[in-house]
Design brief:
The complex is a heterodimer of chains A (437) and B (568). Chain A is an alpha/beta fold and 437 residues long. In chain A, 36% of the residues lie in helices and 21% in strands. Chain A has 3 domains: 2-47; 58-121 and 295-435, Rossmann fold, CATH 3.40.50.740; 124-290, Dimethylsulfoxide Reductase, domain 2. In chain A, β2 and β3 form a beta hairpin. In chain B, α8 (244-252) packs parallel to α9 (291-299) and α11 packs across α14 (420-426). Classes of the chains: A alpha/beta (437), B alpha/beta (568). At the A-B interface, α3, α4, β8, α5 and α12 of A face α1, α3 and β16 of B.
Chain lengths: 437, 568
Amino acid sequence: MTRTVTDVICPFCGTLCDDLEVVVSDDGKDLLEVYNACAIGAEKFLHSQAKDRITRPRMRQEDGSWKEISYDEAIEYTARMLTEAKKPLMYGWSSTNCEAQAVGSEIGEAVGAVMDNTATVCHGTSLIAVQDIGIPSCTLGEIKNRADRILFWGCNPAHAHPRHMSRYSIFPRGFFTGKGHAGRKMIVVDPRPTDTASLADIHLQIEQGHDYELLDALRVAFKGEQLPDVVAGIPKEKIYEVADMLKSGRFAIIFFGMGVTQSLGKNHNIDEAIAVTRDLNEYTKAAIMPMRGHYNVTGSGQVWGWLFGFPYAVDLSRGFARYNPGETTSNDLLRRDEVDAVFVLGSDPGAHFPFSSVKKIYNRPSVVIDPHETPTTEVCKVHVPVAFVGVEVGGCAYRMDNVPIETRKVVEPPEGMMTDEEFLKRVLGRVKEIQGV
Amino acid sequence: MAEYLIKNGFVFDPVQGIKGDAVDVAIKDGKIVETTALSSPKVIDATGKTVMAGGVDIHAHVAGPKVNIGRNFRPEDKLFTYKPKNGIERMQGGFSVPTTIRTGYNYARMGYTTVMEAAMPPLYARHTHEEMRDTPILDQGAYPVFGNNWFVLEYLKNHEIENTAAYIAWLLRVTKGYAVKVVNPGGTEAWGWGLNCENVHDPVPYFDITPAQIIKGLIEANEYLGLPHSMHMHANNLGNPGNYTTTLDSFKLSEGIKPKSKFGRDQVLHHTHVQFHSYGGDSWGNMESKAKEIMDYVNSHDNITIDIGQVTLDETTTMTADGPFEHHLTELNHLKWANADVELETAAGVVPYLYSPNIKVCAIQWCIGLELALLAKDPMRVFITTDHPNAGLFIRYPRIMKWLMSTEAREQQFDAFKHKDKVIDATNLAGIDRELGLYEIAQMTRTGTAKSLGLSHLYGGLAPGLEADVAVYDFNPNKPYVPDDIEKAFLNAEHVFKAGVQVVKDHEIASNGNKRTLWVNAKVNENPQVMRDVKEKFLRYYTVNLNNYEVAGHYLPNPYVIEVDATE
């Protein structure tokens, strides 16, 4: 016999779909099927069932091979490493729950760590822009129920957030949007002819790296002022057309991704995109939202917000919190040799950081907490496998619009396996013992 | 638990009518007891000091999504404000929007032990509870917002009080909320289209209902349920010259409605931060105080309580569910603007603001708040707040006490205004020589707020049986003092007890306490229509499934549930 768990939350991307159905064996030990999820989300659930999954901590030996160790030994190593380091980096925090993030923050506070999350190579620039100019935004339900002008800038939800368009932005029929996609105009700004762009009413195939100019041109066009014949590779007629389309809507929304946050201009691009949104509010209603990647990167920014006052790049090494992106961000710290130990949880810097940073991780005492084997586990000294959050343990996660949803446990983790939160609580306890407080 | 005897302090306790007499206060098992009930107490000598019950804040924005937007989008608010961790104290940062840790500690240092979060968007209830969980020491509750909720708009359009009440009971239960909050009724829904409702008769787009119908209906539904607190309102047209007529129109909607609550309150409407709603004139140039007109009404209608929303002349971070107002504000001061509309429920905006003594309007606002308190005939119905952090910071409460207790302090501030004469012309304050005493301050900060909240069985006094929330201030009211002594003493209590635990000792944080979260569980008769409507709305319009909406118990590690039975 099997049973079906409904209203399951998908712990993959910032879309945080909460309508999955998962079929599990009657004893709750095996996960058999996943419904309603996208291909990536379904794979995340099914992957937890891999028979060759690592289930015990392991430590790297002199010869490069792994030796299995106990959780107690892993806790001891981690606590020693963090307390002995002058300035450890505690990075990741985006693929775990807020409960673990809160315990991790307390450890960071106790040992004087630098806390940084994946925004550092993703939407950190957006967070800086918000500190410059603010952000008029809304929940995804507002888009579903009201929005009739949808602009995707430098993002490709068809692949990166596969159910975004069907659940929230393009296709759903909401309260004031009974015609679904037929009542909406969709604009995509992307140098690439993506699958998202293929659905658009207008695709502005912008010259790569010229986002700031085009955003600025839109602000000029809103005011009906003169433009050069071509801006960022787009003829001015097209820009006026898009400006009029946005202004004539009842509710416009701009979604943006790493195509603008991590290309030339970085936070200045986002400043300008937000300024476009502010300007649009003079004519109609408009909002803007970053397409956050990991399912709970938003949550780590929230937890640090209420505990420390900053959303990422939080340096606790002086006993109080400092925030100075460029100085207290992970890659800058690693490449300048300013951190002497690395702790990774809920992310894969081995895959996403520049090679020069990854080499630094390899050369330092390091621990990675991750249910998977990843490029990061390959460069760390100790690997601690844990239960999958959202599959084998619940906990709070924040959607890209900051809406908190409690993820569900659907199956038992492999026997004897710890969760992020349990492991961190043990480390915190041990840190306090070592420090004698 | 340890027993304490606080000996020989000057006690100000409106519950027992003690007006500064030297009385002993006994603490045992977390409660105030008769002194004879103690066996071997720790004795605290309070000779020459002031003793009051723990403060109860009826309205502050200290936890939740918009508060955290304020923290995260203002790194400058942390500049020069950080305090390193020290012993049991965790690190604390932020000025106008402090971290949760600092919020708990700073209130405790002022002798405040209960604080109500004034606006909780239901969809973000989990976030609000996570922040309250991480706020040490204080007992807290949160008010979910109802004034722009689609269920409420649809039910009240047809005056369906029973259905509205059933929905309120359901939402309080699933969000673990405390009271019915209303912010810019109808106007915030209109903001979904970039519009607003500017008076109580301005219809809400599409929903075909007026703010007046929403206000009256929610007061009636609140009394139908008999909740501990009354309906708690931020009316339409906040912050605009000439808005006092809208405020009076809103007040009048409560006329003829009697409280039906077993929790000892006498009001059916609490209007918050009335300072922002008491403006005359028709432009910023001729804006003037209408505090007298407002207080004439409040003084003669005992089914209303208010809090003042005092401007403290600081740099701060405004934040409110009044979305259109924050947009209006960013157009005025051109500072950064965050907005967060919430599907089917509400919205919020956040804008930094500088209340400068060099700006005439800010100085007039300062006068209006103090006028409201000084013109109050019944201090049990008019409370000190700053609408933290909107008009000012909660750490300025002691400064407000100073202004209210001393004409000298007020004159000093008048002299510091750039446009002193124009400010005096536009206000009444310079002609008011009333000086409040500590007994009235206790009413405005503890006893009155506890009563208005329906919590006088727990807080607000020092009578045996109440919670042992006690503050000892290093202030001798019988000796000569300068005004600044008041602020200094009440900003930094010498000893504070929360539910019998000493949380401040010799002016230092001594314990992280045992914080509780208060929420109201109202039982109503089964209402299949409302439950069907809830299912339908979640299926069709929400982006979160109904089964993922409720805030589970573990977000409130130490809940205090107040049961209400409205089934009869």
